[in-house]
Amino acid sequence: MGTRNQLWSIAKMSVTGGVIGITISDRYVTVVAIKGHSMHPTMTGTDSALRGDIVLAEKGCLDRYKFSRGDVILFKCPSNHKEVFVKRLIGLPGEWIQLPASSEIIKVPQGHCWVEGDNAARSWDSRSFGPIPLGLINGRVTHIIWPPSKMGRVERKWPEDRIPPF
Amino acid sequence: MSRFVRRFAGIPWRQIAGEAFSVGLLTAQGLCAVHVVSEHVLGVAFPRGPSMLPALNMAGDVLLTDKVSPRRGWVGPGDVVLLLSPEDPRKIVAKRVLGMEGDEVTYPVDAGNSDATKTVVVPQGHIWVQGDNIYSSNDSRQFGPVPYGLVKGKMSYRIWPPSRIGAIDSKE
C-alpha cells in the first residue's frame, strides 16, 4: 500500500510539473538549442548535441506581434512546419527592402516580415523563400545561456553592409 | 496601544500566509491546466463573419477545435481549419482547406463578376484555403497559398446552437 501511495504522489507531482512547465514555455520563456551555421558569428551550431549554442527565447512579444528591426527571432519554416529557424529580422511590414545581391527594391507585404541569417553565405532565408507571415514567428531570442564563454544578451544589431530603410 | 500590539501579534500570520500560498498555487495549477488543454488538446472557438456560410453561421456558433490534428499532420482537403491570418497575425480566421502541397487547385478569380478561373499548384509545405461563401471571403484567392505552420486547429464539432449539434460536414 505504501509503495502505491508513493507512486501516486510521484505521478501527480510530475504531471503538475509538466503542465506548469509547458505553460511557461508556451507563454513566457523557452530554451532552444541552435543547429546549423546560418547565424554565425552571433551563434554557432553543430550537429552533435551539447556542442551548439543554447539560447533563451521570450514569448511575450507574441501577444501584440511588436518587433524591431535587428531582433533575432525564431520561426517555423514556411515550407516545413516541423522545423524551427533562427534568423535576424531585417524588414517589418510595409517597409522597402533592398535585396543585397541585386539593386532590386521590394515592399514587405502587410502581416509579413523579411528575415536573413547573419552568415549570408550559408543561410537559407527570405532571399530564397521571400517574406514570411508574422504568424509563423515563435519567439524572440534574448540571451545565450550555453556555452558559458558566450553567456549574455543577444544584441539587436543591423548588418553593416546594408542601408537601413527609412 | 499595548493591547492593540498584543492582539496584532495574536493573529496567526504564519497560518494565513501558508493558506494563501497553497490557494494561490492551486489556482496557478488550474490556470496552467486550462492553458495546456485549450492550446494542445481541445479548444473552444466562436467564429464570426460571413465567409463560411452556410457551414458556419454569421455569429453565435460555438465549436470545439481539435489542436492535436494540425501538429500530427492529420489535416486534409475538406477540413475546416482555424489559422492565423497571413495579413494580420492577431486575427484568427476559419476557412476550408481545398488543397495540400503539390495539389492543383482551380479557383474563380473574380466570383460574381466573371466566370474566369485560374489553376495553381500549391507549393511545398503550404495549403490552399477558401471560405465556403466565395462571394464574401478573404482567402487564398487574395493572399495565395499559406504555410501549414499557420494552422492552429481543426474545427471538428459544433456544440451550439442545440439544433445543429454535431460534426461539421467535411466536403470536397
Automatic annotation (TrEMBL), chain A:
Active-site residues annotated for this sequence: 38, 87
Biological process per Gene Ontology, one example term: signal peptide processing
UniProtKB keywords: Hydrolase, Membrane, Mitochondrion, Mitochondrion inner membrane, Protease, Transmembrane, Transmembrane helix
The keyword Transmembrane is annotated on this UniProt entry: yes
Pfam families tied to this protein: Peptidase_S26
Domain annotation Peptidase S26: ranges: 10-99, 106-146
Cellular localization per UniProt: Mitochondrion inner membrane
Cellular compartments per GO CC: mitochondrial inner membrane peptidase complex
Record carries keyword Transmembrane helix: yes
Topology in the lipid bilayer: Single-pass membrane protein
Predominant subcellular localization, coarse grouping: mitochondrion
Top-level division of the source organism's lineage: Eukaryota
GO molecular function: serine-type endopeptidase activity
UniProt record similarity statement: Belongs to the peptidase S26 family. IMP2 subfamily.
Protein name listed in UniProt: Mitochondrial inner membrane protease subunit 2
From TrEMBL, chain B:
Any one GO molecular function term: serine-type endopeptidase activity
Domain of life: Eukaryota
Peptidase S26 domain location: 30-108, 117-160
List of catalytic residues: 51, 95
Pfam families: Peptidase_S26
Keyword NAD in record: no
Gene Ontology CC: mitochondrial inner membrane peptidase complex
Primary residence: mitochondrion
Protein keywords: Hydrolase, Membrane, Mitochondrion, Mitochondrion inner membrane
Gene Ontology BP, a term: signal peptide processing
Listed SUPFAM superfamilies: LexA/Signal peptidase
Cell compartments where the protein resides: Mitochondrion inner membrane
Parts forming coiled coils: none
Subunit organization: Heterodimer of 2 subunits, IMP1A/B and IMP12.
Homology family: Belongs to the peptidase S26 family. IMP1 subfamily.
Function: Catalyzes the removal of transit peptides required for the targeting of proteins from the mitochondrial matrix, across the inner membrane, into the inter-membrane space.
Name of the protein described by the UniProt record: Peptidase S26 domain-containing protein
Organism: Triticum urartu (Red wild einkorn)
Primary gene name: LOC125527289
